[in-house]
Amino acid sequence: MHRWLLLAYPRDYRRTRGAEILETVRDVGPAHRRSRMAANLVRHGLRARLGRPASRTVVAWASVFAVVCGLFAASFGTWLAWLGSRPLDHRDLAAVVGQLYPDRQAGHIDQDDPPAVFLIYGHPLGEDLLSELLLGDGGEYALAELTASFDQTPAGGLTDLRKRLDAAGWKRHEPFYANAYDCVPDTPQCDPASIPSDITVYAERGDHILAVELTADGSTNVTLSRATPGTAYPAGLLGFVLGLAGGWVLFGWASRRTEGRRPLVQGPAKILYGVAMVFWAAPILLGAPLMLTHHLDEPHPRWHVPWEWLGQPALSLPFLVGTVLLLLVLGLAALPHRRPAARTLAGASDPGPAL
Amino acid sequence: MREATFLILTALADEPRHGYGIIQDVAGLSGGRVNLLPGTLYAALDRLVVQGLVEPSHEEVVDGRLRRYYRLRADGQAELARQTERLRQLASAAETRLRALRPRTA
Prior knowledge:
The structure holds two protein chains of two kinds. Chain A has three domains: 1-48, no CATH class; 58-79 and 230-355, no CATH class; 86-226, no CATH class. Chain A starts with a helix and ends in a 21-residue tail after the last helix. The longest helix of chain A is centred in the C-terminal third of the chain and has 35 residues, at 263-297. In chain A, strands 1, 4, 5, 6, 7, 8 and 9 form a seven-stranded antiparallel beta sheet that branches. In chain A, helix 9 (263-297) packs antiparallel against helix 11. Chain A has helices spanning 2-5, 11-28, 34-48, 58-83, 90-100, 127-137, 157-167, 232-258, 263-297, 306-309, 316-334; strands at residues 108-109, 118-119, 142-143, 146-150, 171-172, 176-179, 197-205, 208-214, 220-226. Chain A is elongated and about 85 Å long. Chain A is an alpha+beta fold. Chain B is an alpha+beta fold. Chain B is 61% helix and 18% strand. In chain B, strands 1-3-2 form a three-stranded antiparallel beta sheet. The longest helix of chain B is centred in the C-terminal third of the chain and has 32 residues, at 74-105. Chain B is elongated and about 65 Å long. The chains are: A alpha+beta, B alpha+beta.
């Protein structure tokens, strides 16, 4: 079993030290629990992947990179799961509107199915809209919705709406009240208590999310969208684990490849990595608290998609720049160089069998 | 310096030792309190080798089993002496205060 656990160590390390470590493990074996020994080997094997054994900071840098990779990979996993979700059907919206307001004619109701699960300015993301996504309008990339509206709120208002939602089998949330406008600060003639409210009722049924907004100006808006697909959760978890592991291994490879290199390689590699992490992590540090505040302020029958918590794709340009910088770091690490033979084991004549 | 690192340097002070030999000696030096696991030992040896305090000495194959020995370098001896002096000073200071305390607690 311990031979397998040595896979936590990088290949070069296993080649030079694997046999030696295994012999010591066999000698020590009876004195310790196998699980404790195994955890110890995995922990130090993962640390050995980073190289730079005397460094006090390399573990922190690798952890940041691995966690960020894990978060982005989790987002990618859930995005793929969303792409596999059932497309919205405009006939479902017509049926819902018919159930809620059978005696009213909608002023507007979408008559076509959305062309994709996610849209930007009503269109699927394509080459023509890529520049919009990158240059500041990434926040417009959002889940497709179907909408209907009435110019006047039907009689009965909120009370009838609740009854009809219950009768149609919707699981509804408590109404959410939002001021139609805010008072300008330091204007005593504006009484916040007298500001009219927009009322929104969220409801769920099957894989549908319904939002009915009764606005202060007397109109009603109905929005139908998809609930988070069940596959999104395992896909996100799997993506996180793979991203975390991949990030650690990739960082370790670059760290070992640049270890002991000339300052001309090490210096730029460290600077590029640092700047890239700012471009990758800053949107997360900015976006996540804002999203959390927003999430706590309003009822959410469906969590925002994970990449929005990471500030994406609103800040996709910094992400792209960070990616290019990281590719440059990997390019520097991949530059061929002559490695000192078994640097940490000077004098060792036989490296031992590869494991 | 961590206690385990200090004990590894101490274990190598009198003669070169292989991995298991270091583990046994460290356990003996600490009265069985510090039992190094192989992963911890080799991570510490890597660090000490890079810091120039320890170096591989030679290898032996006994009954088909590889034994790689490590020894203290001159810098390692100097560092061990420095740490020993530091600990001696600390122990001495603590001892002085404890001595001063005894008559009052008696």
